[in-house]
Write a structure and sequence with these properties.
disordered N terminus, binds 2-acetamido-2-deoxy-beta-D-glucopyranose, 9-stranded antiparallel beta sheet, alpha+beta
């Protein structure tokens, strides 16, 4: 409230003003309840206070006390948190958990990556490495800022996907078209028991038209039917202004054991994933990014189930084993996966089947091929004998191929691969 200034000479005037002020205060105090009932100012303020307190509480839970902090050139703060203090150990089932520092078994590979990768190619790394690293026995965690939480639709939803977002290619119904605005262009296998999956994915920075949309490229390890108890483990790269406050391309993970309802989250934004690696931060920016018609940069993602302990491990590149999802987080995936998907997903907020220009992958269609279209290559699955092998019977799926498309292929160099992506809105996708 802006009070009019009293002329210094007039005491009576000042008195009257004070009286009016006091009356106003009294009135607003006594009537806060009434105002609340009608959704007035009093309630708004109280709600704001409550929300502020909830945000602080949530930040305190997410951001563990670091032994060191590194400021990344992209504005992130990376906290080096003692490995035993990470968010996973807030989980009641993990109170007495003994951290597995490494997997008992790696899957046996088909491809020798060191032979495939050319030596002089620049490796993908994370931006914050330019300003320091975390010491041993700590893990790097991207600090959640107040603004991050405030961008979420609610504090409870922060770090969670908004909707069910995994397509079920085997039961596509026409009325599922554009459901919740999630659009996919993916390759998939089903009908067997899978114990992991791998892919080499080139990295792009798709442009996002609306702040509450996102674009990502990832693999899905899926268990169960596509009902309320769907299990999913996901990893890849994403651009999500809502989650991170910018348009940077970031490494991410996701998990859920109930179809994106109560359980699971991105990265370390809830208890579940146990990180063991001190060099890579979940949700941190990666670079370099591929250039249209120029240099191409890709990342390797491998997820597999350790046959000894049953945990699902995640590896990034050839060198970084990042950590694991304990088997007990899941129902179906406690045994094995029944479906693997690889590909892109965007959220389109435009209603009624029309489209924003949010890009998937490079923003170009598969037809354009290498250097211009985005790809997944050497896609593989882990079988029941812990061997990586080429997937059999790969299908592909997209809701609207004139907006985002996918094209499978197979050759000696790239094994099983596909190009995918698109521009979203264009003359054939209005
Ligand atoms: C992200 O990109 C969009 C579209 O290019 C732009 O409008 C927006 O301002 C950017 N957002 C941020 C946080 O930089």
């Amino acid at each position: 409230m802006a009070a009019p200034r009293a002329p210094p000479s007039s005491r009576r005037c000042l008195f009257v003003l004070l009286a009016v002020l006091a009356a106003t205060l009294l009135l607003s105090a006594c009537c806060a309840e009434g105002a609340a009932a009608t959704g007035g100012k009093g309630m708004t303020r109280r709600r704001q206070l409550l929300r502020q307190r909830q945000v602080q509480h949530h930040l305190k839970r997410l951001n563990k006390a670091p032994v060191a902090s590194i400021e990344s050139p992209d504005g992130d703060i990376i906290d080096c948190v003692p490995i035993a203090s990470q968010p996973a150990f807030d989980h009641p089932f993990l109170k007495d958990h003994t951290i597995q520092t490494r997997p008992a078994y790696h899957p046996e590979g088909l491809y020798d990556e060191s032979k495939v990768a050319s030596k002089d190619r620049q490796k993908i790394t994370q931006m914050w490495h330019q300003n320091g690293m975390c010491q041993e026995n700590t893990i790097p965690i991207r600090r959640t800022k107040k603004e991050d939480v405030l961008r979420a639709s609610s504090i409870k939803r922060y770090g969670k996907k908004m909707h069910k977002s995994t397509p079920n290619p085997s039961s596509v119904e026409p009325n599922m078209l554009n459901e919740n605005g999630h659009q996919h262009a993916i390759a998939y296998v089903e009908g067997d028991k899978y114990y992991g999956a791998k892919a080499t994915i080139n990295v792009w920075q798709p442009s996002i038209q609306q702040g509450n949309e996102f674009s990502l490229s990832q693999l899905w390890i899926l268990g169960g039917s596509f009902g309320q108890d769907l299990n999913s483990i996901e990893a890849g790269w994403q651009v999500s202004p809502d989650l991170y406050g910018d348009n940077n391309t970031r490494l991410f993970t996701y998990w859920t054991s109930d179809a994106y309802q109560a359980t699971g989250c991105y990265n370390l934004l809830c208890s579940g994933f146990i990180q063991t690696n001190n060099q890579i931060a979940m949700g941190a920016s990666i670079f370099p990014i591929s250039n249209y018609g120029g240099s191409q940069y890709d990342i390797n993602i491998l997820v597999w189930k350790d046959p000894k302990e049953g945990n699902w491990w995640l590896q990034f590149g050839n060198d970084y084993v990042l950590g694991y999802w304990p088997s007990f987080l899941f129902s179906y995936l406690a045994d094995s996966a029944s479906m693997i998907e690889w590909g892109g997903e965007v959220v389109n907020t435009e209603p009624d089947g029309s489209h924003t220009s949010t890009q998937m992958g490079s923003g170009h269609f598969p037809e354009e091929g290498f250097g211009k279209s985005s790809y997944f290559k050497n896609i593989q699955v882990v079988d029941s004998t812990n061997n990586l092998k080429a997937p059999r019977g790969v299908g592909s799926y997209t809701e609207q191929s004139n907006c985002y498309d996918v094209q499978n292929g197979n050759n000696g160099d790239w094994g099983t691969y596909f190009y995918y992506g698109g521009p979203g809105k264009n003359p054939n996708c209005p």
